[in-house]
Design brief:
PPDK_reg, 4-stranded parallel sheet, 11 helices, EC 2.7.4.27, nucleotide-binding, alpha/beta, about 15% strand
Amino acid sequence: MDSEKQNEVVTIFIISDSAGETASKLAQASMAQYPTVEFCLFRRTFVHTEELLMKALNDAKAENGMIIYTLIDPDLAKIAKDFSDNEDLFTMDLLNPVVSEIGKRAQLEPTGERGALHHLNENYFKRIKAMEFAVKYDDGKDPRGFLEADVVLLGVSRTSKTPLSLYLANKNLKVANLPLIPQAHIPKQLFEIDPKKIVGLTNDPEVLIGIRKERMRAYGLNPETAYSDREKIQAELKFAHELYHKLGCEIINVATLSIEETAAMIMSALDLEDHSYYFMEEES
């Protein structure tokens, strides 16, 4: 492959009758496989009319873009497919093939409702409550939250406790977290809960040093402080590991993991389900 083609920008158009999150996630997951490629991602959301759809399709044609669409209206979906076929553009209908197959198996017609995933239903309000819970019990503000939590995250500073708490809350899980500092008081509630609800987060010393120095620079402060001192960090990690083993909890090293990967590992290790969407409860 010549260098000119290697440097060509790959353009992707997301066309959706709702927020476009489903198609965007697929595009981003695919793009991540090509870290050296330059991408241009366009989002055309809340496309409810033929006029808006045709404008989006013509924009994609002008950029020779790949098209990924989620359009529940069969007429709009057909327009997108026919246009792409006629113009020889790559296109993917991410929604209708699966919706149709479910309909066949369930012997039902789909509602055809746009944005049905984002209903303000009971699950939605549970998610809001879970996020409020994560904020209320962030950084060990109130140890009583440990007794109510689905997940309790422990870790030294800069092990992603807060972003993980909020990410898991978005999956309808109540999460509390506690920062660990050597010689600091450990709340008694931590020893009163099932250790299978606790996850001890850790990190590599070198990674922590870099993260903490960068944080100090972001505040306009000297990065060479006790906060980023190697011996102090090693002592913090040693203290944390001793506590984890005493509790008998799951331990996850976040050094090379994204928030999404860590969350997935937590849910797998603790045998938790993602209840942020519709789900069916088993009858007892």
